[in-house]
Design goal:
The chain is mainly beta and 182 residues long. The protein contains two helices and 13 strands.
């Protein structure tokens, strides 16, 4: 695996070795020893899988308790994946990073605890898988407004149309109203 840094402190793009031929492909999506050698000592406790249709935006989510690190990837379709650094002591505090994740490229993104996360579906549908370093804690979940002007995420909206949001995401909080991490 190749681990690439991003403009956000501690967020990594991960490109696994993929071995393929006319029958298909093989890749390791997680290898504890390989990640440890890259300086990532992570214990995952939960795997999640979501499927979403074109134009749906899920995010920007995080938890204030049982804070989760996430290893994310797309297994069908394509999304624009975004993280925002909410760690006040970080050199990249308040900044965002986004990249396109496509199933055929097998690229993954690692974000440690302390980030808001979301994605926007670019393909007809997308299957999104992610491993988490702590359990889901709905009582402490927060949604940062997807279009908050202070954060200024540049979403690649299809045909310039507003994304399809859940009620929770439509009621996301502004940057000035969200709890942050020390």
């Amino acid at each position: 695996m190749i681990f690439e840094s991003t403009p956000l402190e501690d967020v990594l793009v991960i490109r696994p070795a993929v071995f393929g031929d006319e029958r298909g492909f093989f890749m390791e999506s997680w290898n504890d020893r390989g990640f440890a050698e890259a300086g990532l000592d992570i214990r995952f406790v939960q795997d999640n899988h979501s499927r979403s249709s074109r134009g749906i935006l899920r995010g920007m989510h995080y938890q204030t308790e049982q804070v989760q690190g996430k290893l994310v990837r797309v297994t069908a379709g394509a999304v624009y994946d975004v993280v925002v650094d909410l760690r006040q002591g970080s050199p990249s505090f308040g900044q965002w990073f986004g990249l396109e994740l496509r199933a055929e490229e097998h690229t993954m993104l690692w974000m440690p605890p302390g980030f808001a996360h979301g994605f926007y579906v670019l393909s007809d549908s997308a299957d999104f898988l992610y491993k988490t370093s702590d359990y889901y804690h709905p009582e402490s979940e927060v949604s940062l407004r997807w279009d908050d002007p202070v954060v200024g995420i540049d979403w690649p909206l299809l045909d310039g149309e507003a994304p399809i949001l859940s009620n929770k995401d439509a009621a996301g909080l502004s940057w000035d109203a969200i709890p942050l991490f020390d």
